[in-house]
Amino acid sequence: MAYSARLGTERHTFADLKAVMACASPRRSGDELAGLAANSDERRVAARRVLADLPLRTFLDDLLIPYEQDEVTRLIIDSHDAAAFAPVAAMTVGEFRNWLLSYDATPATLRALAPGLTPEMVAAVSKLMRNQDLISVAGKCQVVTAFRSTLGLPGRLASRLQPNHPTDDPAGIAASTLDGLLYGIGDAVIGINPATDSVPACTTLLEMLDAVRQRFDIPTQSCVLTHVTTSLRAMERGAPLDLVFQSVAGSQAANKGFGIDLALLAEAHSAALDLKRGTVGDNVMYFETGQGAALSADAHHDVDQQTMEVRAYAVARAFRPLLVNTVVGFIGPEYLFDAKQIIRAGLEDHFCGKLLGLPMGVDVCYTNHAEADQDDMDVLMNLLTVAGVNFLIAVPGADDVMLNYQSLAFHDIVSLRHQHHRPPAPEFEAWLRRMGMTDADGRVVPLSPSSAPVRRLLEG
């Protein structure tokens, strides 16, 4: 089915809905690399005009990736909640945008609506929004999850402590972990990207992190971001695993490239639930995504990279995760060329994930060959905090020495919490107070090497 719109004296025709979606996207190096992007700003506006007039129901009938070819499409369609969709079912994409920005779109109504929205609907409406629109609506989307800490409560900002080490040295990782804890970081998760994907290495790190957690009675969860099959084998051998991690993408073929399918994720989800290690909740999955993953695997089906990213959120949503984050600038400038594209993508991913009902976080990051720097990341981290992001990721000195990319530093999280009055998860906030690491106003205080909290952590 062709779609078209007239601008002035020229009629712009698009071969199918995939072309409309791709051409309506803000400029993106990945879509240009794939030959999908609009070749002019005028054509981009024409695509957005077509998109604005499309009924939301179109995305239930005109599927971007055929149902019979792709299990992610089948998941999206088979799990669609028609009753939840009913309040917006008669709207066009443009009308839906206006409604989302209205007073009628409250946190409660958005929460009830989420199961009725498909990734394609959400991606479509995001393409009609300014950055401020994305921030405004995402700020109304509240998604609360829990394991040992409760995440996503209004007015709070959680953090992942990422103590990676290039050789998985437990002493080096422990030192970075203690450093982060002294900054009040780690209430979302203490999560390690291992240099070696093996069951023994994974188990060693899990045991070390669990010993630290138990020694200081820290109300958080740990995770070694290994492949799901490694996590399954570690659980079989009795490893103290809190969360199962996996990178996911928006098509069956892309997920096959990750060595996974929906059945494998379901098996891991069930195994982690059976451990019953959570104390305040049972959300046991942690998923990571990033624009460009499907394209880099040549598994994008000629669908634009942002829509493919949002389809990955349907995979995550099926397993009630504790955490989901996009590593927004990690894949490189081939997909997000510069700071403008990275900032826009971060706001898009957060908005789309939240609108679909996901506990969305962001790794505010860039690679050293991208046209971006730490000042640009300062902009994005503040915008996301205003938008109510569930958690952000921080690494020692903002420089991940194992993955070789730039993220946020521990002190960035401290600064954001103070500036925007966003305390950590309540259980973790109480722990910081008990440890003497915050003042009467709940602020993390500067600590000397001889101070009691430092001595307790180092001597423990």
Write the layout of secondary structure elements.
Blueprint: E1 3-7, E2 10-14, H1 17-24, H2 29-33, H3 41-53, H4 58-61, H5 71-78, H6 82-85, H7 93-100, H8 107-113, H9 119-126, H10 131-138, E3 145-146, E4 150-151, E5 158-161, H11 170-182, E6 189-192, H12 199-216, E7 222-224, H13 228-236, E8 244-247, H14 252-257, H15 262-275, E9 285-289, H16 293-296, H17 305-317, E10 323-327, H18 339-355, E11 360-363, H19 374-386, E12 391-395, E13 399-400, E14 405-406, E15 408-409, H20 410-420, H21 426-434, H22 452-459
Parallel strand pairs: 5-6, 5-12, 6-7, 8-9, 9-10, 10-11, 11-12, 12-15
Antiparallel strand pairs: 1-2, 3-4, 13-14
Helix pairs in contact: 1-3, 5-17, 7-9, 9-17, 9-18, 10-18, 12-13, 13-15, 17-18, 18-19
What can you see in these coordinates?
With 460 residues, the protein is α/β, with parallel strands linked by helices. The protein folds into two domains: 1-53, ethanolamine ammonia-lyase heavy chain domain like (Ribosomal Protein L24e, Chain: T, Roll), CATH 2.30.170.30; 145-434, Alpha-Beta Barrel (TIM Barrel). Helices cover 45% and strands 12% of the residues. It contains 22 helices and 15 strands. The strands form four sheets. Strands 5, 6, 7, 8, 9, 10, 11, 12 and 15 form a nine-stranded parallel beta sheet that branches. A two-stranded antiparallel sheet has the order 1-2. The longest helix has 18 residues, at 199-216. The N and C termini lie far apart (66 Å). One of its GO terms (cellular component) is cytosol. One of its GO terms (biological process) is amino acid metabolic process. Its EC number is 4.3.1.7.
